[in-house]
Amino acid sequence: MGWLPDESGLEKTAANYVPLTPLSFLVRAAQVFPEQTALVYGETRRTYAEHRARISRLASALRDKGIKSGDVVATILPNVPPQAEAHFGVPAMGGVLNTINTRLDVDTVAYIFDHAGAKMVLVDSQFLELAEEAADRMEGTAPIFIECSDDQAGRKASGRHMTYEELMESGDPEAAWDWPEDEWESISINYTSGTTGRPKGVVYHHRGAYLNAMGQVISWRMVLNPVYLTIVPLFHCNGWCHTWMMPLVGGTLVCCRDIQAKPIFDAIADEGVTHFGGAPIVLNTLINAKDGDKREFDHIVEVFTAGAPPPPSTLKRIEPMGFNVTHVYGLTETYGPATECTWKPMWDGLEGDERAAVKARQGVAMPFIENNTVMDPETMSEVAHDGETQGEIMYRGNGVMKGYYKDPEKTAESFEGGYYHTGDLAVLEKDGYIRIADRAKDIIISGGENISSVEVEGVIAGHEAVSLCAVVAKPDEKWGEVPCAFVELKDGCEATEEELIAFARKTLAGFKTPKKVVFKELPKTSTGKIQKFELRQEAKTL
Amino acid sequence: MGWLPDESGLEKTAANYVPLTPLSFLVRAAQVFPEQTALVYGETRRTYAEHRARISRLASALRDKGIKSGDVVATILPNVPPQAEAHFGVPAMGGVLNTINTRLDVDTVAYIFDHAGAKMVLVDSQFLELAEEAADRMEGTAPIFIECSDDQAGRKASGRHMTYEELMESGDPEAAWDWPEDEWESISINYTSGTTGRPKGVVYHHRGAYLNAMGQVISWRMVLNPVYLTIVPLFHCNGWCHTWMMPLVGGTLVCCRDIQAKPIFDAIADEGVTHFGGAPIVLNTLINAKDGDKREFDHIVEVFTAGAPPPPSTLKRIEPMGFNVTHVYGLTETYGPATECTWKPMWDGLEGDERAAVKARQGVAMPFIENNTVMDPETMSEVAHDGETQGEIMYRGNGVMKGYYKDPEKTAESFEGGYYHTGDLAVLEKDGYIRIADRAKDIIISGGENISSVEVEGVIAGHEAVSLCAVVAKPDEKWGEVPCAFVELKDGCEATEEELIAFARKTLAGFKTPKKVVFKELPKTSTGKIQKFELRQEAKTL
Is the pLDDT of residue A526 over 80? Predict the structure, then answer.
């Protein structure tokens, strides 16, 4: 250990030690780039000086409404300015941000409200009924509602709650912020669907958010003053930490409420968007856009894509359109992308399928990850670099979550042996790049959203006619994958595909509802375990 | 404070907490970029895989020679591979690196050997006699000598000591490294001349080195795989932390032993150098190079310049040659550059003197600095943004030193009020950019080297004929500034300019020796204090 024989007077002081937090990025941006555009949403356009003042308003208004340090503030918002502001305003008063997926069903939202114990929720008028119904179904005390209306999108305030702009009006644009005293303090909770039905609350800390944002600048080959378009929902891993990253590089955050081809092309052409992240489905949306929706632009747009490897056909068509696509991989537990298929100069000559094969791999650790490899979970030793031996993708480093909220047991289990276990099976190729072989966890990824097949199975099994049910991924050209249910009916019972789909939809969010139901006897092992592998093979042929 | 009501299971673990250290950058580079060129020196060329193996050799060989965690290992080396390797190899076995300025005089080197308590010194054959004489003059135990010969430069081993390559040969290329358990552990000591004669040992920690390197990537608009030329001596603030930075971005470090126009142009043209740092004198060297030494190249070289603001005449001539110059400012106490005259798009149209005036300012905080401003040291409040009100440049943040070695008193003094006090007087311009008005500390900067005028005065005052002496900076076209001595002789005594210069040179390093001596009665205040301000004015007219 590098302690000098005499370390007297060399302790931490206020001058030389500041807990790492992304809040620092915004304060610096307001000093260095006060006149630079921080945020754009349609006709709304704010400089960094204005942005910082609004964050002070939000932080002080939250305090005035009784929110205290360590309290959870939830949001149910699309990618609109209040969502971007909450990423700074909530931690700036010591609060912990819980961005909830707007696509979830009432029951799950109610569960999250209860589990996280949110004291307040900022909710878009579009999702107000969802939030209100969820509050009604809660076991605990309902949060205060602040309604974010959106005139530009034709979403008028209901009149039933205080509005976000009324809240902001009550705040002080000069209010001081609360700063973390310890960089390990919590900054946000992101609920993720795991293998079990109930989502787990992944807790992030200030240190991780800071280091992840700084490291991704390097991974993304980003220089000063980028223009970033919010396609990845900010409720997914806090928008992959990109909202926190922008002030670090004096960048402009362009909010995009509806993820459609026209507004995306418009933002690229009119605002000069240089970077965005999104699932491969977004790339297909751009490729298949109507001619009237497409726009000309003369710069290269850097794209991080994740959720599934970008298919060769997509890469071949999107890259000549002016997009440079980099495949990244990560999980809610790693603050979003933490592995990157880092491009090497020696591959510059590759074309077509060869190029696509290189690009479709998951890749290597980003700078804030200490070690990211494929290991045998029994021996915790790295598998051979042979492209064949399977192991589990593991992470160790400062970009790994703090843990699961109120679940020390699952946290300890996921960190066994000093590494975060992703549950994803992969191989290491000869050059050390990770390539996923199979997902060990029973997850279906549809349009970039994770779906727990166990959750879907639980709902369908609740139908009176169903004896046994297994849900697997069925490949889908548009969504990547969609849930497909294999069902054994009870003796003497009957049910149609339409009936079961409608039944599931009553409880499940639309994206989780099976798109296909197959009635048959399920294949089982000798011990009675359903052989999902066979069903996955079958689903591919449907 | 952002602690959730229930933080059980959310503590630091091996999976999610790793002390920040630049050692991580090299391990990751060897995994991600093993085939990439890490280091070039003439005919020597090593990949990251080879570079990492040599670091393991060095770390294990140091251990075998009895060096222990917390021991200081010194170097007296130009910018050659052993110096770059020591930056990783010494901390990789828990040692603390002390790079000593090769231009110092024997007495000062002896003082540093004693003060830092170096157990070993890696010394270039060119500076071996200096080191040996210094060891002879030490009060304490002399360090083990390891001689770095350099055949390429015609510097043969003396045969009197173990050579560096013999040491490396004894090491294990697969040896494990020692990792810091606490990111606050010391990584290096850099001696700086202050206002008093004896240099102070500025201690850096692993955390600061990591954050500084990461933040400078952003400041320098650096993307993956840069080619960095070592012009700034690695013994100045560890080469402004750039050696540590290179593996983070998979960059190539090109070693440059002699800072002359021809090797610099050759490196730019042949190795494709993209970045270097250096004092304005280096830029003048390039401008004034002989035609035969100049080379054509077709890319832009990014230059960080510091030590003095780049003069307008220099900027006007160097920029059309293919160099983009950014003025940076910092001190040994801030790990080198920590303030940057960050360029803004709105200045793109500026030309000539207007452009130079904007570029010559010190600028704004780099990302790893929390706050960098100009304050009234009495009230510790920021001065007005009026370009007129003077105050002292202050820093607070993770890029501020740990403190002065074995000097808790000076450390506490320099951190008074929670900020590091630079001693430099400046104003804040309307846009918040810092511009230095005057240097409060009695420092002369000659060719990028700091000279304490008090030290020079002390030596001259030792001459038997001298009654009183004051040393100030005299502007110099080549060196920026040179020391100029004003001397009052004792009644009835005589001495010539040549005599005093020769007398000073016996003790002082060449760059510290006055280039001009003026005999006159020194101007004094009513209390007898020498009015240096007047002498500085006079020196400008000489």
Answer: no
Q: How is the beta sheet containing B96-99 ordered, strand by strand?
A: B162-163, B144-148, B120-124, B72-76, B96-99, B186-192, B200-205, B403-404
What is the enclosing helix (H) or strand (E) of B133? helix B128-137
What tens digit of pLDDT does each residue of B139-158 get?
Answer: 999 999 999 999 999 999 99
Reduce the DSSP state of residue B124 to 3 states and report it.
strand
Using CA atoms, how far apart are residues A264 and B23, in angstroms rounded to an integer? 41
CB contact under 8 A, B1 and A217: no
Chain A residue with Cα closest to B6: A406
* Domains, chain A: 443-539 (3.30.300.30)
Per-residue model confidence (pLDDT) at position A298: 95
Strands (E), A294-344: 301-305, 323-331, 336-340
Contact B15 A411 (CB under 8 A): no
Q: Which residues of B touch A409 (CB under 8 A)?
A: 9
Who contacts A422 (Cβ-Cβ below 8 Å, separation ≥6)? A331, A333, A392, A393, A394, A395
A72/chain B closest Cα distance in angstroms: 8
Assigned token pair, B269? 């043209």
Residue B200 in tokens:
């102070």
* Chain A residues touching B182 at Cβ < 8 A: 1
Which residue of B16, B186, B219 is the best one to mutate when testing the A interface, meaning the one whose CB has the most A CBs within 10 A?
A: B16
- Chain A residue whose CA is closest to B420: A15
Q: Give the integer Cα–Cα distance in Å for B273 and B307.
A: 22
Cα gap A333→A200, rounded to integer Å: 10
Measured between CA atoms, the residue of chain B closest to residue A402 is B10
Contacts of B166 (CB under 8 A, 6+ apart): none
- List all residues 6 or more positions away from A319 whose beta carbon is below 8 Å from its beta carbon: A325
**What is the percent of chain A with per-residue pLDDT over 90, rounded to a whole number?**
79
Nearest-CA distance A12 → chain B (Å): 7
Contact B171, B158 (CB under 8 A): no
Cβ distance of B2 and A224 shorter than 8 Å = no
Helix (H) / strand (E) element for A453: namely helix A453-460
pLDDT of residue A528: 65
* Total-model pTM: 0.89
Of B1, B34, B365, the CB nearest to A94: B1
CA distance A178 to A186: 13
Q: Provide the ipTM.
A: 0.88
Give the model confidence (pLDDT) of B68-127 as tens digits: 999 999 999 999 999 999 999 999 999 999 999 999 999 999 999 999 999 999 999 999
- Cβ atoms of residues B123 and B144 within 8 Å: no
Q: Which residues contact B376 (CB under 8 A, 6 or more apart)?
A: B383, B391, B392
Interface test with B, best of A16, A347, A375 (most B CBs within 10 A): A16
Tokens of A40: 């754009």
* A479 and A281 Cβ atoms separated by less than 8 Å: yes
Full DSSP string of A178-205: P--SSTTSEEEEEEE--SSSS-EEEEEE
Residue A326 sits at φ, ψ, to 5 deg, of -120, 125
Instruction: Inspect the interface and report whether the beta carbons of B8 and A406 lie closer than 8 Å.
Output: yes
Question: For residue A157, what pLDDT is reported?
Answer: 97
Q: Name the residue among A142, A140, A141, A139 with its Cα closest to residue A131.
A: A142
Lowest mean pLDDT among A92-106, A397-411, A423-437, B52-66: A423-437
Is pLDDT above 80 for A407?
A: yes
3-class secondary structure, B121: strand
- How confident is the model over A385-398, as a mean pLDDT? 94
Per-residue pLDDT, averaged over A5-27, amounts to 97
Residue A91: which of B2, B69, B406 has the nearest Cβ? B2
